[in-house]
């Protein structure tokens, strides 16, 4: 009786840094890159001698890792009994909190069922789509061209234990190069969701069901969100903005963060409260985050490109911005106000384009098709009637707004002494915005040297990918997919 759940990776299009503080919003797009968790019993029989503890086996085939834990059924503590490598705190907290949530929500009969289930042990396998990781080095080593086709030729769930040999032939801890899609949030969410479904605490929707969960049908999904958010924050050792977990649970959205004190109980868990009480506090706490449906307008595509400059440390960059905010509060406030206004303006323009698409579909498709074949300075000449001209105005408005966002992000980076939009990325983004059919381009999230994103019109993505390749940028296979956490029909490796 295996349960398989999956959760998507994300791209924070607007709201980098600002989303850390209420009431600033961020627009986050979920993607077709998904993290999977498979949960099944470790043993089919229960050993009558063992009643105080059980075993949890965690396998990560891509990392060639297997860890076995002994879990106390009284305190839910995990003790590592055998491991081929380092521990995974995200999964450890997800396991502990999911069991505690089941106990907090169940009556006596259900608790007895849960106990029997736990005595069989838990066998958990985690798998991330190739898109979460950088395979650029392997592609170059195989002398393949830097194209999406080369990426697509890799087998699904390819091993990511690169560079395990040191210069002198000694083995060392593998480096894992990531693309910045939020693998830890997607993994934590997938494991939490799979366990809660396995324990019958929640009933997950399948991918085929309507995924933009409406308010009234979200009770189960909300529990997944609260437990995944808690596990992710505690594993990280800090309460982040939570947009990555929220998009892994609910899909694409406009997001305003929750008040951090909703997790104070979990942070103070050491103060003698049982884990069940702690998680009960979390579930019943005042989760005041806001999320509103959002996705790109029709016939627009998200494209990500990996420039091969290596990733950036979001944590140290956020630290530098916070330090600057403290030292120059007035200047920081002005910059944030301008950024916040520009972020809102972009959101308004994109929503306006979605409305225009709905109300004037023929004009909309016609002009998007035409614009997809030309650079932006030609777009206005392409409109043949007033509605098309209005649509082009909205497209050019969205472009200008993104240029404004980039300008203020660069200023903030210079003031804080960090490369939010490094010079190499500026050149690449400017070149990208000058390509046919590109609406705009930017650095997602906290910026730095991670993958860049572009929003393209109609069928222009393949041409942009080709032009990127000539600039030594690898276009990834990732696309926007507005759906959130889901129940899968089986092991993704067998599909």
Structure description:
With 495 residues, the chain is an alpha+beta fold. It has 16 helices and 13 strands. The chain has helices spanning 89-105, 108-119, 136-141, 148-152, 183-198, 219-236, 243-250, 264-267, 275-283, 314-327, 329-359, 361-371, 379-382, 386-416, 423-433, 461-470; strands at residues 3-14, 25-41, 53-60, 65-72, 78-83, 122-128, 253-256, 290-293, 300-306, 438-442, 452-457, 474-475, 486-487. Strands 1, 2, 3, 4, 5, 6, 7, 8 and 13 form a nine-stranded mixed beta sheet that branches. It has a four-stranded antiparallel beta sheet with strand order 10-11-9-12. Strand 4 and strand 5 form a beta hairpin. The chain is globular, with a radius of gyration of 23 Å.
Report the uncertain regions.
211-216
Shape: globular
**Would you tell me the overall average pLDDT?**
91
Alpha-carbon Rg, integer:
23 Å
Could you give a short account of the major beta sheet? 9 strands, mixed
Helical percent range?
A: 40-55%
């Amino acid at each position: 009786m295996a349960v398989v759940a999956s959760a998507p990776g994300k791209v924070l299009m607007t709201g980098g840094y600002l989303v850390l503080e209420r009431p600033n919003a961020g627009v986050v797009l979920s993607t077709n890159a998904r993290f999977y968790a498979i949960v099944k019993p470790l043993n089919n029989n229960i050993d009558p001698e063992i009643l105080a503890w059980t075993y949890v086996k965690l396998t990560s085939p891509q990392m060639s890792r297997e860890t076995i834990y002994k879990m106390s059924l009284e305190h839910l503590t995990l003790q590592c009994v055998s491991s081929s490598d380092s521990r995974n705190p995200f999964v450890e907290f997800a396991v502990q909190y999911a069991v505690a949530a089941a106990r907090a929500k169940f009556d006596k009969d259900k608790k007895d069922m849960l106990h029997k289930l736990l005595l069989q042990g838990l066998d958990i396998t985690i798998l991330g789509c190739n898109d979460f990781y950088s395979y650029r080095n392997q592609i170059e080593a195989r002398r393949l061209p830097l194209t999406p086709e080369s990426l697509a030729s890799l087998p699904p769930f390819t091993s990511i234990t690169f560079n395990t040999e040191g210069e002198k032939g000694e083995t060392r801890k593998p480096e894992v190069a990531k693309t910045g899609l939020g693998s830890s949030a997607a993994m934590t969410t997938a494991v939490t969701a799979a366990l809660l479904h396995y324990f019958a605490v929640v009933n997950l929707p399948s991918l085929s069901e309507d995924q933009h969960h409406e308010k009234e049908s979200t009770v189960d999904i909300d529990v997944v969100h609260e437990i995944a958010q808690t596990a992710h924050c505690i594993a990280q050792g800090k309460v982040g903005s939570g947009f990555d977990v929220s998009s892994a649970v609910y899909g694409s959205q406009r997001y305003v963060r929750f008040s951090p004190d909703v997790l104070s109980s979990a942070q103070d868990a050491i103060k003698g409260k049982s884990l069940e009480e702690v998680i009960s506090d979390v579930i019943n706490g005042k989760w005041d985050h806001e999320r509103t449906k959002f996705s790109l307008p029709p016939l627009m595509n998200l494209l990500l490109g990996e420039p091969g400059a290596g990733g950036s440390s979001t944590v140290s960059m956020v630290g530098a911005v916070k330090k600057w905010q403290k030292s120059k509060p007035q200047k920081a406030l002005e910059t944030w106000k301008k950024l916040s206004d520009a972020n809102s303006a972009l959101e308004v323009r994109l929503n306006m384009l979605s409305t225009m698409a709905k109300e004037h579909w023929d004009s909309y498709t016609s002009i998007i098709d035409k614009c997809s074949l030309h650079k932006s300075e030609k777009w206005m000449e392409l409109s043949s009637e007033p509605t098309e001209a209005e649509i082009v105005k909205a497209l050019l408005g969205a472009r200008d707004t993104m240029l404004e966002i980039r300008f203020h992000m660069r200023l903030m980076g210079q003031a804080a002494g960090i490369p939010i939009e490094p010079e190499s990325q500026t050149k690449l983004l400017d070149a990208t915005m000058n390509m046919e059919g590109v609406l705009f381009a930017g650095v997602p999230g906290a910026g730095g040297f991670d993958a860049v994103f572009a929003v393209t019109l109609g069928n222009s993505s393949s041409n942009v990918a080709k032009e990127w390749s000539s600039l030594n940028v690898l276009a990834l296979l990732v696309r926007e997919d507005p759906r959130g956490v889901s129940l899968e029909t089986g092991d993704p490796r067998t599909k």
